[in-house]
Design goal:
Blueprint (H helix, E strand, L loop, with lengths): L7 E5 L17 E5 L3 H7 L2 H6 L2 H9 L11 H16 L2 E6 L2 E6 L20 E4 L6 E4 L4 H17 L6 H9 E4 L5 H11 L2 H14 L6 E2 L8 E2 L12
Helix pairs in contact: 5-6
Length: 242
């Protein structure tokens, strides 16, 4: 049987590769992915993956050709690969319902929100922010797959203790913050988030992270609206015939 060459595309990462060490293949700022096949459609409809919430990860791991550690990808870069994979597989049009209206977005026309190079020390995923109300100084990182796994594991453990009180926001902050006023001790960071972090500082901090985080944002302007809002990501985003 003759060898069949699978078509591929090179995807530019919103991070430009600046947040990865030079030794990491992701520092090139691009990732090569193959076109989706029937094999990947099997992944999309795998009920076990869907129930465990890992279907997107399984899909992207199957599609990425570049030899990388998948867990090294920061969230915004992973989103860019996902949007590109969907557009390559089923075309750019993504149709969804918002309110009582139906909208269609062309995914191929979305512009990546790239990292501001001026904020980055090449190869180092760490930033600094001074909390505006208490003047505490935090350093923080943009979460990657390794962090997301740890957060999920911790939240699962907390659910066993109390199903009615799952501190997802503060748990994510504990993994995002890398130091508080110069201290990198996990104990100090956790105590600060639990006891001292004011709600107004927390909000300002999270808004700053969103502002600088590289990503691909799927947004649109609703009928009668003036500001863009995030489009709902439904099952038919990855599988239009779902």
């Amino acid at each position: 049987m003759s060898e069949f060459k699978m078509p591929t595309e090179v995807i530019e990462l919103p991070s430009k590769g600046l947040l990865y060490p030079e030794s990491n293949p992701l520092s090139a700022g691009t990732v090569e992915i193959k076109y989706m096949t029937a094999k990947e459609e099997d992944i999309l409809t795998n009920q076990s993956y869907i129930q465990k919430g890992v279907v997107v990860d399984k899909l992207l791991q199957s599609l990425i050709v570049t030899k990388i550690n998948y867990e090294d990808l920061i969230v915004g870069d992973k989103n860019a690969i996902l949007v590109a994979a969907r557009a390559l597989a089923y075309g750019g049009d993504y149709t969804f319902t918002y309110g009582n209206q139906t909208y269609t977005i062309d995914l191929t026309e979305l512009e990546a929100k790239e990292i501001d190079s001026a904020l980055v020390k090449k190869g180092i995923n760490e930033f600094e922010f001074k909390l505006p109300y208490t003047d505490n100084v935090v350093t923080f990182k943009l979460l990657d797959g390794h962090d997301e796994k740890k957060i999920s594991k911790e939240l699962e453990g907390l659910k066993k203790i109390s199903k009615d009180n799952i501190p997802e926001l503060t748990t994510r902050l504990k993994y995002t913050i890398t130091s508080i006023n110069g201290s990198r001790e996990a104990k100090d960071i956790r105590e600060f988030v639990d006891i001292q972090l004011l709600a107004r500082d927390s909000r300002a901090f999270r808004e700053y992270i969103r502002a600088i985080q590289p990503d691909v944002e799927i947004v649109f302007i609703p009928e009668g609206g003036e500001k863009s809002v995030s489009a709902p990501i439904t099952a038919n985003f990855l599988y239009p015939e779902f």
